[in-house]
């Protein structure tokens, strides 16, 4: 690589950052009203102080949204990775072959899963969910050492710019940071740093340097490359290639033709700003009604600049009445209807909570919520979330798991590389939201079996339903691991044993012996 290659790469990155510029004001405004004092050290342009916020509904509900989204998609401390045969494999293999493949993939998932249960993944995905409330997030699996081979990092989305190809797929991500020279060298221990850079680390150790990390897909779409370089560098400090996408960039909602996402906070921003202003005006009105507006006679003995407004204070006055009236008099304004303000504020707060899926139970006052109302709220939440659920599950785990598997394979923890292409091998998520989506399918299967039994009778149901396939659908619908289901050999042995027992029972009945009495005597 040469200096020309670095300049060409930086030109591409600058173009991506230029395209992101119109989104900065949108995202920044959402951060200012819902996540105030974001990164207050001044590393970005969001420096609004919290004393400008007059209502905390959006602030509290945004954090609740992040926790709720994580609980619905990736429950903390629970195994959520499912590797199974894809639709092409299921159509090409027999039922026995699919079962064997699923067991093999389940064993691989069991070896990957412990690295998602250390707490590092839960922390990273929760931080990403906070940014997803605004619209877009990011999670990067980072290759570590043999003692700690895999960790997860959530870069703030302020530091990321993306580009999509002509089909809407993310094919370029630029991560821009301002770091000290020694931090860059520590982050890339095997990086290439020339004498000029090392001199900066010594002579200007406290001066931050802009570090670019660009991730982009190579021609053909089968490999990704990451290059790291700094301002004025004559060569790339790091060049890495991978078979899998190095980072996940999920978007909550996405409008066609846009690279960035739109989250509930961005959609609820008009109500959030209106509520903030309404609360500010209501507080000012309440302060006026409590303290009042006072008038005094100019040129008299009363000086408002020196008078102390506090209980028990004495004001020096020459007169408090007369033809011209008192020297100091309260001017009572028309009493404002604070009840109207409370009603408007309450409606706006409810709208914001609904937009952020804040379905927390109210305080213990009034009539308690019924069980049917709570269930209806949860069902409504599942139906509302489902629009973004498919995108989030596709843009997170099918990206994170292959990248994590590649890192573990490089360390020798996995014996073979894992190619998750969603056709032969698919990756899905075991989550409460997925279970809620599967509930309707399970209810349909149960209703069909009940009708079949009522119409043709229990012995004839097997002619209208393949119970083995039905139970496999039920297992997947309830997200039961394949390891708890007996394999074909064990099932064949159990069926052979059942057949032998039935043959013995038939022979005993033919000889006039009651099998139940023999069983009772043996017991």
Describe this structure in words.
By secondary structure, the chain is an alpha+beta fold. The chain has a domain at 431-516. It contains 16 helices and 11 strands. It has helices at 3-34, 57-73, 87-92, 95-112, 120-132, 181-187, 195-203, 264-267, 269-291, 338-355, 371-395, 397-410, 432-456, 467-477, 488-510, 515-522, and strands spanning 81-85, 140-143, 150-153, 160-164, 170-179, 209-217, 224-230, 238-242, 293-296, 328-331, 425-429. The strands form 4 sheets. Strands 4-5-6-7-8 form a 5-stranded antiparallel β-sheet. A hairpin with a 6-residue loop joins β2 and β3 (150-153). α1 (3-34) packs across α9. The longest helix is centred in the N-terminal third of the chain and has 32 residues, at 3-34. It is flat and about 130 Å long. The relative contact order is 0.12. The mean pLDDT is 82.
Q: What would you say about this model in short?
A:
The protein is of the alpha+beta class.
Q: What descriptive keywords fit this protein?
A:
single chain; 523 residues; alpha+beta; five-stranded antiparallel beta sheet; two-stranded antiparallel ribbon; 16 helices; 11 strands; 12% strand
The total strand number stands at: 11
**How does the helix and strand content classify structurally?**
alpha+beta
> Number of DSSP helices?
16
Kindly, what is the distance between the CA atoms of the first and last residues, rounded to a whole number of angstroms? 82 Å
| Spatial extent as radius of gyration | 33 Å
């Amino acid at each position: 690589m040469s200096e020309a290659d670095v300049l060409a790469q930086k030109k591409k990155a600058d173009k991506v950052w230029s395209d992101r510029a119109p989104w900065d004001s949108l995202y920044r405004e959402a951060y200012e009203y819902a996540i105030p004092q974001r990164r207050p050290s001044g590393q970005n342009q969001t420096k609004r102080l919290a004393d400008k916020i007059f209502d905390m509904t959006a602030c509290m509900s945004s954090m609740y949204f992040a926790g709720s989204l994580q609980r619905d998609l990736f429950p903390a401390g629970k195994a959520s990775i499912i590797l199974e045969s894809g639709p092409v494999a299921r159509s090409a293999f027999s039922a026995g072959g699919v079962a064997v493949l699923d067991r093999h993939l389940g064993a691989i998932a069991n070896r990957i899963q412990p690295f998602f249960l250390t707490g590092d993944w839960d922390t990273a995905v929760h931080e990403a969910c906070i940014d997803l409330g605004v619209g877009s997030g990011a999670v990067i699996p980072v290759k570590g050492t043999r003692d700690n081979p895999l960790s997860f990092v959530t870069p703030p989305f302020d530091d990321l710019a993306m580009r999509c190809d002509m089909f809407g797929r993310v094919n370029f991500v630029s991560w821009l940071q301002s770091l000290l020279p020694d931090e860059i060298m520590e982050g890339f221990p095997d990086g290439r740093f020339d004498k000029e850079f090392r001199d900066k680390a010594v002579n200007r150790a406290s001066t931050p340097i802009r570090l670019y990390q660009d991730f982009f897909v190579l021609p053909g779409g089968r490999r990704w490359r990451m290059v790291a370089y700094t301002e004025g560098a004559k060569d790339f400090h790091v060049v890495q290639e991978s078979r899998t996408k190095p980072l996940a960039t999920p978007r909550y909602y996405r409008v066609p033709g846009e690279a960035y996402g739109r989250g509930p906070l961005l959609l609820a921003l008009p109500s959030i700003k209106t509520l903030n202003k309404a609360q500010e005006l209501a507080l000012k009105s309440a302060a006026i009604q409590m303290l009042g507006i006072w008038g005094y006679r100019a040129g008299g003995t009363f000086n408002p600049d020196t008078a102390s407004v506090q209980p028990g204070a004495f004001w020096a006055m020459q007169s408090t009445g007369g033809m011209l009236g008192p020297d100091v008099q309260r001017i009572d304004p028309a009493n404002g209807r604070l009840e109207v303000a409370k009603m408007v504020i309450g409606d706006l707060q409810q709208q914001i909570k609904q937009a952020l899926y804040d379905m927390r139970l109210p305080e213990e006052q009034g009539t308690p919520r019924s069980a049917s109302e709570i269930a209806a709220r949860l069902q409504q939440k599942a139906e509302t979330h489902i629009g973004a659920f498919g995108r989030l599950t596709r843009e997170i785990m099918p990206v994170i798991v292959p990248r994590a598997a590649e890192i573990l394979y490089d360390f020798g923890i996995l014996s073979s590389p894992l190619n998750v292409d969603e056709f032969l091998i698919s990756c899905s998520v075991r989550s409460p939201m997925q279970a809620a989506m599967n509930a309707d399918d399970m209810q349909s299967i149960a209703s069909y079996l009940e009708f079949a039994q009522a119409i043709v009778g229990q012995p004839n149901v097997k002619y209208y339903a393949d119970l083995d396939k039905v139970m496999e659908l039920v297992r997947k619908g309830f997200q039961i691991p394949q390891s708890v289901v007996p394999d074909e050999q064990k099932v064949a042995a159990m069926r052979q044993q059942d057949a032998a027992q039935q043959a013995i029972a038939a022979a005993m009945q033919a000889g006039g012996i009651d099998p139940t009495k023999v069983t009772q005597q043996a017991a």
